Amino acid sequence: MYLYKRAQRLAKEEQRQAQRAAEKLVPLEDEVVSSTKTQSESLAEPEAPVPVRPISIGPDAEIEQEAEIESEIESTPVVASVSESSESAMDESWANDKLASALIEYRNAATAEEKHAGLLQAIGECYKQRKEQSYCEYGAGLAADYQAVFAQLPSPANEKGTAFMQLATLLNDSGQFDGAIKVCQTAMGYGLTDGTVTGFEGRIARIEKAKQKVAK
């Protein structure tokens, strides 16, 4: 009887010890499960995007950009167009009616003969008014145009050398002695005469004397 009770007491103690051990294991399992769940949740959850702070351009920055553009525009040199410079150089508001009419005829001409006729009148009027500096210099400036048109005539050698003589005088009076000599030489190349006894040869000699006189 004594042994039976002792055996029962030992069995109860073993049962209580086993129950206590089981109670200790349960929290550990819960902790393991909890930690595993936390790790899986942390892996499953996507990382929150890092907020990007927008760069705001305030009115001050816009003003600075506009100021830079304006400064670049102001620093850009302003170059006058060819048409503007040529118009200012070809101011003909001072020209009388005869010269203006002759220039219109020349510029509207379709053939070399018509252009030649218009230039003859323009050069002749400048020659008549050569005492005025504007006419003298303008007439001298027609030398290149006249020689170009003259070369296009069907029979330039049959033309008169009046315009060449007038151009030589206008160039000489403008102080363009070398230009005056070249005009005379061009006329001589066509076999033309200036209507004087000595011809263009004598005119060249007189122009060279005038050149030497100015050089002294």
Describe this structure in words.
α8 (162-173) runs antiparallel to α9. The N and C termini lie far apart (166 Å). This protein has helices at residues 2-44, 59-75, 82-89, 97-108, 112-128, 133-140, 143-150, 162-173, 177-189, 199-215. Mean pLDDT is 76; it is low at 25-46 and 50-89. With 216 residues, it is mostly helical. It has ten helices and no strands. Helices cover 72% and strands 0% of the residues.
Keywords:
216 residues, 10 helices, rod-shaped, mainly alpha
Instruction: Name the overall outline.
Output: rod-shaped
Weakly predicted, low-confidence segments: 25-46, 50-89
Mean pLDDT: 76
Strand residues, percent: under 5%
Number of DSSP E strands: 0
Largest sheet: none
Cα-atom Rg, whole angstroms? 55 Å
Assembly type? single chain
Percent helix, as a range, is over 70%
Number of helices: 10
Structural class: mainly alpha
User: Would you list the SSEs in sequence order as H and E?
Assistant: HHHHHHHHHH
**How widely separated are the two ends?**
166 Å
Structural topology:
Elements: H1 2-44, H2 59-75, H3 82-89, H4 97-108, H5 112-128, H6 133-140, H7 143-150, H8 162-173, H9 177-189, H10 199-215
Helix pairs in contact: 4-5, 5-6, 5-7, 5-8, 6-8, 8-9, 9-10
Short overview:
The chain is an all-alpha fold and 216 residues long. The chain has ten helices and no strands. The protein has helices at 2-44, 59-75, 82-89, 97-108, 112-128, 133-140, 143-150, 162-173, 177-189, 199-215.
